[in-house]
């Protein structure tokens, strides 16, 4: 078991860089999965900002349109035009945003002057930026219609803008729907885990395999009274143990972070099976890359490109639900796509029936198929090369 | 016979790397494989070790045919490759232990052997060092230690002293002789004739994949008509005087470059005295005078018409 022992000594040597990678990856995934939760919450509050419109201009159709637009999904509070009262309202968070419309605004706007609306808001708040954007969006759309079609009456203009903005709003809402409803947090952890796992494994497995594949060392091993088969078997065993260890470590971490929620989650076995299948996929990609790459400097570039690229177009970072069908079709030729798909399906499982779990197991099997295919190609390439060398 | 190679032919595409190469090595010899760069030494070694497939010929080691799966033969061979082949990730001690462990399973025994090898190459102070931190010479010594730690009967060293300073080189050469005294048969390849002359009991000279001559160094030198080379420092030698020197008995050639006269002689005695007598007769005053015995380079020169190192 000399080779097997050396495998872990080489692994130990590449440990510091692996650990740094791991730490960075874990940090990123935690931030990412944290972000998704925050976004979801933000998305919700943003849609019902308490705001007030102080209209010193009069009841013009344009301003009515703006007020209607702002009131959509938000809560409009009636406040008197009294600066002390307004400040109090802001201070006690009765409202977090106050639009101030100065007299003559509508006329000047329609005349094409560049006018802006003043606003008072809770300092540095996201809701403030959100409302700024809403107003900016409304006015710039109105400006666009006014310039494109100077013949429109104020009423027509307002109606056109309202119609225009309504379309976009409904789309935005749909995205939020898909993204956040009822998905347990750990599902995001498991989604980013695909990247952690594949990046770490490609880099480490390739580094080690490339060490053992160095022509001089290979030749030296071949001089020893030890069948090549045995050398390869020991290296493969080392890889297998490393794979299981990586997988177990990331799973262990997920238990540390989401312990109770995970343990009571009915889809847990499938979650584990899915990640394990993907660990095997990562291992097979590691084998494949190591059979193609010859220099250590190229390796880190390649491993980054492969792991990032694969994860990116397969929907690890961007939800599959909002990716274009074309990209998704292309991604379905990649194993990470099936991992994410299965992971999403597991995350949205309401009941466990053969009908709901069937497609998940299919996705897992497809990943295993990918792994087998990558292994075969890697073996074929190594064999070809060995024959070529002689 | 330890190694018996008959009519080995190896082609790389169109290039004929070994051309009916034959070699017989007896137990206990320090055998030198001498040839210029690209003459096929490494190719021959790799074929002997079954690392390369060859087109024709037979190879026997310890009287048995050598094959990729002849593990009982491989067990008794130690190999020091031309390129340093060690793990960058393992320390000196771990590297030696790794390679020794491919041959020796018993831990206790291996620990002793590794220790012995470390002392043998003088790396005691560098046990925990990683190869990156070793100088070129120390790295070569590690390479050797990895090859010989398991105490093989046959040790093959492929240019183990390339890019090594003279001091390390000498200690390596002494070490090789010590291994031979401990009973190992040595095959040593090099393109440095000085090394081969210094340690080898028998030598084969090869070029372009062919065996040119085999024998002890005395036998090899005896094969050529070339004898000693005389060198005299002097000024103002005229063309007709150089011609006259060339006509002296036993002189096979003479060159003059304005400051130095070089005269090649075949066998014969008193060549130097005869030359100096001539120069005095011509009232030429000369500076330093050397007489060098023939070298393997002269042998190579005479057989191939070119120098060992061009
Ligand atoms: N893998 C290969 N493919 C093609 N040609 C090769 C290969 N290996 C060696 N050669 C050629 O075969 C010839 C013999 O090479 P070899 O390495 O055996 O020489 P050598 O005597 O060991 O030289 P050196 O002293 O430089 O080590 C050279 O011309 C070399 O270019
Ligand atoms: Mg060579």
Topology readout:
The complex is a heterodimer of chains A (390) and B (310).
Chain A: H1 2-13, H2 15-46, E1 50-55, H3 61-71, E2 75-76, H4 83-91, E3 97-101, H5 105-110, E4 118-121, H6 126-148, H7 154-180, H8 185-213, H9 215-223, H10 228-263, H11 268-292, H12 296-313, H13 325-331, H14 335-347, H15 354-389
Parallel strand pairs in A: 1-2, 1-3
Antiparallel strand pairs in A: 3-4
Helix pairs in contact in A: 1-10, 2-8, 3-7, 6-7, 8-10, 8-11, 8-12, 8-14, 10-11, 11-14, 11-15, 14-15
Chain B: E1 3-12, E2 15-25, E3 30-34, H1 41-48, E4 56-61, E5 64-65, H2 71-74, E6 77-80, H3 92-101, H4 107-121, H5 136-148, E7 154-158, H6 166-181, E8 185-190, H7 193-199, E9 202-207, E10 210-215, H8 217-223, E11 226-234, H9 239-246, E12 251-256, E13 260-266, H10 271-281, E14 286-292, H11 296-304
Parallel strand pairs in B: 3-8, 3-9, 6-7, 7-8
Antiparallel strand pairs in B: 1-2, 1-4, 4-5, 9-10, 11-13, 11-14, 12-13
Helix pairs in contact in B: 3-4, 3-5, 4-5
Magnesium ion (MG) binds at residues 41-42, 82, 158-159 of chain B.
The largest sheet of chain A, given as strand count, sense and whether it forms a barrel, is: 4 strands, mixed
What distance separates the N and C termini of chain A? 27 Å
How many beta-strand elements of chain B? 14
> What bound compounds does this protein have?
adenosine-5'-triphosphate, magnesium ion
Task: Quickly count the helices of chain B.
Answer: 11
Largest sheet features of chain B: 6 strands, mixed
Helices and strands of chain A, in order, run as HHEHEHEHEHHHHHHHHHH
Strand content of chain B: 25-35%
> Helices and strands of chain B, in N-to-C order?
EEEHEEHEHHHEHEHEEHEHEEHEH
What is the CATH level 1 assignment of the largest domain in chain B?
A: Alpha Beta
How many domains of chain B? The number is 2
Q: What is the percent of helical residues of chain B?
A: 25-40%
Oligomer: heterodimer
CATH architecture of the largest domain in chain B: 3-Layer(aba) Sandwich
- Summing up helix and strand content along with how strands pair, one would put the structural category of chain A as mainly alpha
């Amino acid at each position: 078991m000399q080779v097997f022992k050396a495998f872990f000594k080489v692994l130990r040597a590449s440990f510091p860089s692996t650990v740094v990678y791991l730490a960075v990856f874990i940090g990123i995934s935690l931030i990412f999965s944290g972000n998704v939760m925050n976004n979801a919450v933000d998305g919700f509050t943003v849609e019902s900002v308490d705001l007030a419109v102080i209209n010193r201009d009069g009841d013009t159709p344009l301003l009515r349109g703006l007020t209607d637009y702002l009131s959509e999904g938000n809560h409009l509070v009636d406040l008197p035009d009294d600066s002390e009262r307004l400040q109090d309202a802001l201070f006690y968070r009765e409202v977090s945003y106050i639009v101030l419309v100065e007299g003559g605004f509508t006329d000047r706007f329609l005349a094409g002057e560049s006018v802006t609306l003043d606003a008072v808001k809770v300092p540095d708040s996201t809701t403030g930026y959100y409302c700024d954007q809403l107003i900016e969006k409304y006015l710039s759309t109105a400006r666009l219609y006014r310039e494109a079609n100077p013949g429109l009456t104020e009423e027509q203009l307002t109606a056109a803008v309202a119609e225009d903005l309504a379309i976009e709003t409904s789309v935005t809402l749909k995205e939020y729907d898909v993204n956040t409803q009822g998905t347990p947090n750990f599902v995001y952890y498991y989604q980013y885990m695909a990247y952690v796992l594949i990046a770490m494994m490609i880099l480490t497995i390739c580094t080690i395999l490339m060490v053992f594949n160095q022509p001089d060392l290979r030749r030296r091993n071949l001089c020893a009274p030890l069948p090549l088969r045995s050398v390869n078997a020991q290296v493969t065993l080392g890889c297998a143990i490393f794979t299981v260890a990586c997988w177990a470590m990331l799973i262990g971490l997920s238990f540390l972070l989401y312990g109770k929620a995970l343990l009571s989650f009915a889809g847990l076995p499938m979650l584990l099976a899915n990640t394990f299948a993907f660990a095997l996929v990562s291992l097979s990609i590691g084998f494949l890359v190591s059979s193609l790459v010859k220099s250590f400097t190229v390796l880190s570039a390649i491993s980054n490109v492969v792991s990032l690229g694969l994860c990116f177009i397969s929907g690890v970072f961007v939800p599959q639900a909002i990716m274009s069908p074309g990209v998704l079709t292309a991604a379905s030729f990649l194993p990470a796509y099936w991992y994410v798909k299965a992971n999403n399906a597991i995350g949205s499982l309401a009941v466990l029936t053969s009908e709901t779990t069937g497609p998940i197991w299919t996705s897992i099997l497809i990943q295993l198929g990918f792994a087998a295919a990558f292994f075969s190609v890697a073996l074929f390439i190594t064999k070809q090369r060995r024959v070529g060398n002689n | 016979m330890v190694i018996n190679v008959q009519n080995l032919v190896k082609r790389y595409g169109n290039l004929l790397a070994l051309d009916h190469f034959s070699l017989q090595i007896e137990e206990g010899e320090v055998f030198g494989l001498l040839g210029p760069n690209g003459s096929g030494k490494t190719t021959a070694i790799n074929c002997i070790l079954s690392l390369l497939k060859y087109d024709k010929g037979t190879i026997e080691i310890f009287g048995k045919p050598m094959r990729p799966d002849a593990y009982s033969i491989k067990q008794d061979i130690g190999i020091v490759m031309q390129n340093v082949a060690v793990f960058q990730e393992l320390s000196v001690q771990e590297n030696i232990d790794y390679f020794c462990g491919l041959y020796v399973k018993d831990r206790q025994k291996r620990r002793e052997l590794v220790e012995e090898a470390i002392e043998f190459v003088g790396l005691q102070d560098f046990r925990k060092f990683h190869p990156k931190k070793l100088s070129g010479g120390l790295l070569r010594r590690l390479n050797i230690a990895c090859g010989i730690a398991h105490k093989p009967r046959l040790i093959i060293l492929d240019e183990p002293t390339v890019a090594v300073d003279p001091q390390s080189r000498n200690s390596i050469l002494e070490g090789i002789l010590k291994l031979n005294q401990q009973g190992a048969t040595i095959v040593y390849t090099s393109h440095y004739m000085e090394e081969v002359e210094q340690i080898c009991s028998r030598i084969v000279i090869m070029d372009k994949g062919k065996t040119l001559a085999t024998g002890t160094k005395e036998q090899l030198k005896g094969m050529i008509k070339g004898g000693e080379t005389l060198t005299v420092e002097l000024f103002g030698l005229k063309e007709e005087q150089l011609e006259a020197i060339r006509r002296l008995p036993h002189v096979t050639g003479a060159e003059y470059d304005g400051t130095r006269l070089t005269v090649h002689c075949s066998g014969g005695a008193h060549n130097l005295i005869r030359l100096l007598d001539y120069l005095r007769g011509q009232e030429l005053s000369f500076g330093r005078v050397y007489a060098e015995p023939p070298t393997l380079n002269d042998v190579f020169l005479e057989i191939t018409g070119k120098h060992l190192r061009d």
